[in-house]
Amino acid sequence: MKDRGAILPAGHSADAAYWFDGRSGNFVTSTYYMNEEPAWVKAFNARKLMNGYFEKGWSTLYPVETYVQSTKDDKPYEGKPFGADQRGFPYDLKKFVDKSFGTVSSTPYGNTLTIEMAKAAIENEKLGADDITDMLTVSFSSPDYIGHAFGPNSIEVEDTYLRLDRDLSSFFKYLDTKLGKGQYMVFLTADHAVAHVPGFMKENNLPAGTFDDAAVRKWINDNAEKKFSIKNAVEQVINYQLYIDYAVLEAGKVDRDDFKAWALEELKQHPAIMSTFDLHEVPETPMPAKIRNMIENGFNQKLSGDIQFVFNPGWFDGWDKGTTHGSWNPYDSHIPLLW
């Protein structure tokens, strides 16, 4: 469904990459691959399969009382991707027919639609039809959209994976018939995991919270103005990093090392933050080996910031509805690899 979910797995030398455009309701591509979509993609788009899914609505696959791996439905800390009037199962999606096509991404039908597109690619590009190995990457983005909105303990997520399991079973049976058993290899993995919704954590007496980049940037800059008499010394706070405006420091005759040392200690006052590091001094900074390895692997000399901070468990940069990902913790970074 996502552009990055299509382009990144395929790599630079792919023959094509297609992703779902929520505005038009079509699978599209880039001029990097071709000037326009092939006829078979246009024909697939013309079917507007998502309208049929919207007509069906979203009810649980099995009786809702059997969903024992979830919290109760319609928790106050869950998002409302279908509108404030849609408060739990069953979801009426008819209002999205022929409009708001992108809503399908926040339902399990996004996975179903992706599989149908994958089948169309196999049929029309004649994948697996000769003795030259073909590679098809399929990215299921709906679990991400649904997980962000409702959280990993929601009935919506449990139902999504039950349906994805069924969709994958159907797809593998299709491959058995089309290509033959033993004539293809499948591997499954993921790009990240997810944190629990802070509201769920607090409901269960566990520490958690959210972090606001803009608010923290203002807080640091306000305090820096009081201490150093300079304004807007921090350009940006993003991806758990501070970007310092060195021109501001120079104009205010503030020593870089003095400012960094102050900012490192100042950030530690925030309840979300467990530790802070100067990204240019990681080798000399004591820290757990796992965190060091992740920071070093993610460091880009041209793009990274100046100061890295690490959250306490249960905290993330986000909002009070739904959840997100991006921390180093195993609950957020451990992923499967199945062959």
Report what the structure shows.
With 339 residues, the chain is an alpha+beta fold. It has two domains: 3-186, Alkaline Phosphatase, subunit A, CATH 3.40.720; 209-319, 2-Layer Sandwich (Gyrase A, domain 2). It is 37% helix and 11% strand. It has twelve helices and ten strands. It has helices spanning 3-10, 39-46, 49-56, 109-124, 142-150, 155-178, 198-203, 213-228, 246-251, 256-267, 289-298, 330-333; strands at residues 19-21, 26-28, 188-189, 209-211, 234-238, 241-244, 273-278, 307-311, 315-317, 337-338. The strands form four sheets. The protein has a four-stranded antiparallel sheet. Strands 1-2 form a two-stranded antiparallel ribbon. A two-stranded antiparallel sheet has the order 3-10. It starts with a helix and ends with a strand. The relative contact order is 0.11. The model has no long low-confidence stretch (mean pLDDT 95).
Features:
single chain, 4-stranded antiparallel beta sheet, 339 residues, two-stranded antiparallel sheet, Alkaline Phosphatase, subunit A, 2 domains, alpha+beta, Gyrase A, domain 2
Number of strands: 10
- The name CATH uses for the topology of the largest domain is Alkaline Phosphatase, subunit A
The assigned structural class equals alpha+beta
The overall pLDDT, averaged over residues, is 95
CATH superfamily of the largest domain: Alkaline Phosphatase, subunit A
Side by side, the strands of the main sheet go 5-6-8-7
Q: Sheet with the most strands?
A: 4 strands, antiparallel
> Percentage of helical residues?
25-40%
Strand residue percentage: 5-15%
Distance between the termini: 23 Å
- Please count the helical segments: 12
Q: Which segments are poorly predicted (pLDDT under 50) over 5 or more consecutive residues?
A: none
Rounded to the nearest angstrom, the radius of gyration is 24 Å
CATH arch. level architecture of the largest domain: 3-Layer(aba) Sandwich
Number of domains: 2
Q: What is the succession of H and E elements?
A: HEEHHHHHEHEHEEHHEHEEHE
User: What is the level 1 CATH name of the largest domain?
Assistant: Alpha Beta
Shape: globular
